[in-house]
Amino acid sequence: MAIWAYLLFALAAGAMLPIQFGINAQLATWVGGSVRAAFVSFAVGTAALLLAVLATTRGWPERADDAPWWVWTGGLLGAFYVLGSIVTAPKLGAATLVAAILAGQAVASLLIDHFGWVGFEEEPITLLRVVGILLLAGGVALVRLS
Q1: How far apart are CA 126 and CA 120, in angstroms?
Q2: How many folded domains does the chain comprise?
Q3: pLDDT value for 137
Q4: Host domain of residue 143
C-alpha cells in the first residue's frame, strides 16, 4: 500500500478522537461515571474487534506465547488514555484536549525515537524536532487561551 493511503488512514483515525471524546464523556453521564464509561467503551470496542478477528483470522498466533511481557500492556495504556480523555474532555473542551494530547504524544514520540524504545529505530533529538515540540506547546497555549 502506498504511503499516502497510510497517511489518510492515520488522519481518519485521528479525526475520530474528538468525536470519541465527546461520545465517551456523554456516556459517562448516562452510566454513572468516567470509569464505567471507559469500561463500556472498551467492551464495545472489544466486541467489534472480536468480530473483526473472527472474520479475518484463524487460531491463536504461533509466536504470541513467546512475546515479551511488556507487549501485553498496550491495553492498559489504552484504558488510561480513554479514561483520561473522559475525565478531562468536559473540563477542557475538544480543541484544548486534542491540542494537549497532541503535545503529549509529540514529546513522548521524541523520546521514544531518541532512545529506540518499544521497537522503534533510534532517531536522535535534533534542534528542529525540539522547535517543532515547542511550536506544538505554543499551539496548546493559544488554543486554550483563545
Answers
A1: 17
A2: 2
A3: 85
A4: 93-146
